[in-house]
């Protein structure tokens, strides 16, 4: 199943809003993510990421709750496999 996964932005690169990207931490797994859909996102914000694109900024508590649900459902295994 393909779901949006919450993660915390740890760094941002690029000034052009279309090509802006950043490193996002998903509970210890860090991935490069396109930030063009969230131009107001900044370091330490939590974002919902789907297929490499951050789609929205979310509250930290909401992000942690969703991450916990995904972990319980075993939906984070795909994220680990791609990182390896």
Can you offer a commentary on this structure?
The structure is a single chain. The chain has a single domain (5-83), classed as SH3 type barrels (Roll), CATH 2.30.30. It is 25% helix and 38% strand. It has two helices and five strands; from the N terminus they run βββββαα. The protein has helices at 60-73, 77-83, and strands at residues 5-13, 21-26, 29-34, 46-50, 53-58. Strands 3-2-1-4-5 form a five-stranded antiparallel sheet. The longest helix has 14 residues, at 60-73. The chain is globular, with a radius of gyration of 12 Å. The two termini are 19 Å apart.
Quick summary:
By secondary structure, this protein is an alpha+beta fold.
Q: CATH topology, what is it called?
A: SH3 type barrels
- The CATH class label is Mainly Beta
The secondary-structure element order is EEEEEHH
CATH architecture identity: Roll
Strand order of the largest sheet: 3-2-1-4-5
Helix content: 25-40%
Please indicate the count of domains.
1
Which helices and strands appear, and what pairs or packs with what?
Layout: E1 5-13, E2 21-26, E3 29-34, E4 46-50, E5 53-58, H1 60-73, H2 77-83
Antiparallel strand pairs: 1-2, 1-4, 2-3, 4-5
Throw out a few tags for this protein.
84 residues; alpha+beta; SH3 type barrels
């Amino acid at each position: 199943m393909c779901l949006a996964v919450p993660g915390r932005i740890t760094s941002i690169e690029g000034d052009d809003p279309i090509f802006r990207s950043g490193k996002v931490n998903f509970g210890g797994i860090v991935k490069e993510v396109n930030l063009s859909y969230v131009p107001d996102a900044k370091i330490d914000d939590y974002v919902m990421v789907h297929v490499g694109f951050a789609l929205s900024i979310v509250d930290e508590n909401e992000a942690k709750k969703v991450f916990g649900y995904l972990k319980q459902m075993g939906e984070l295994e795909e994220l680990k496999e791609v990182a390896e």
